[in-house]
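Please, structure for the following, as tokens.
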Amino acid sequence: MGRWHRRAKGQKGAAAVEFAVVLPLLVTLLFGIIEMGFVFNRWITVTHAAREGVRRMAVGDPEATAAAKARDSAVGLTPAPSCTGSTPSATTVQMQCTATYDLQLFIYTNNVTLRSTSRASTE
């Protein structure tokens, strides 16, 4: 039979107290990681929209049409990102898309601006 260790009188319930202290920190960390995953997903969507818009401009679509197609390609973003196209040089086109995300983590709230710029050579 194994030997049983006796706990000191002041140690009863110490594990429960330690768990109660650490649990809120772990839950906050977990939800922070999940929220950052949502932010990253939306940033990838904004990047995809910029790439789609610049691809359209590179094949000859007007800036307004390409920007509309870029906004339409950002599926799931509400509100849709604002996209603007430009022509930095005679052989290069550029599309910049910007969106905001309302970051909410318990009592912490903040608007995060997600911005992506894409460039391509004209065909």
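The first strand starts at residue 82 and ends at 89. Residues 14-58 form the longest helix (45 residues).
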